[in-house]
Amino acid sequence: MKNMNLCALVCTALLTSFSAMAEDTSTVEAKDYSLKANIKRIALEYMEHSVSNKNDPNYPDTYNSDEKSNIGGTLDANITYDKQNMVWVNGLFAEYAKSETTEDNITTESEDKDEILLYTDYTHKVWNLEQGVVGPFAYLGYETEFTTFDLGEESYRTKILRAKVGMKLYDGKYFKQLYIAAVEENDMTYDDNNMKTGAEIGYEFNYPLNPHTTFISEGYYRQFFSYSEKEPTDFEYKMAFNNRIQTQLTGDLYLAPFYNYELAQTRGAKSSRAQSTFGLSLTYNKSFDLF
Questions:
Q1: Is the full-model pTM beyond 0.90?
Q2: What is the spatial distance between Cα 173 and Cα 206, in angstroms, rounded to a whole number?
Q3: Strand runs (DSSP E) across the chain, as ranges?
């Protein structure tokens, strides 16, 4: 019940922010703000995976890709309220991929991606640069997944409440985001809540190769320093990058070959685990002016 209440609290905060933005628009001239719905990616993806150290059991269910080809889907969308002195992004990221193999009349299923992330991200604009603005930001996100996973004789579902506070470069010519932040997590996946403290750096980089093709790279590195509980599947660090070359086919439809790389180590693992994914995605991308 406590976990459901926390999830409801995050959802209520997002809905409240939407209401606040709508009310604020009545007192500001149109030229002073923008309110947009952005569909960054609705993608159908074909993937080939390569995994190192895949037999170590001390990794969470959300970090256990198998070396199989599969088809998955990704949704990355947000509502962005942008004013002269601030920008407020409220978004949803979700991805899921599943593969099946049959040997000797036995079918084995493997989930290679399973994540839902609901978040709100506020940046206060302090310094206007020639390319972008810089200022402090605050972020609150709730991470979970579509399906449960089994550990021992129990079933669990990832439930993580994550907060970040730091400094960010926003909306530069090439770097759409570049930030450094302190991180605090409340991991509610298992029976006892696990409070974790760490730091993170991340970025979003867009570089146009020609009028119809753009190289896009997104990534982060997160390092934890302290934990309130002792779980062998807790990450000591995690690094993830997504790189794709997105080419316009027609209208808002794009084709994008991509390469994803993830590297992490947990507290119970003897060595790190790397996951490499090559793939091809068919992507829909569009923005809508709401006011």
A1: no
A2: 8
A3: 33-51, 69-83, 86-103, 106-124, 127-129, 132-144, 149-151, 154-156, 160-170, 175-187, 194-210, 213-227, 235-250, 253-266, 273-289
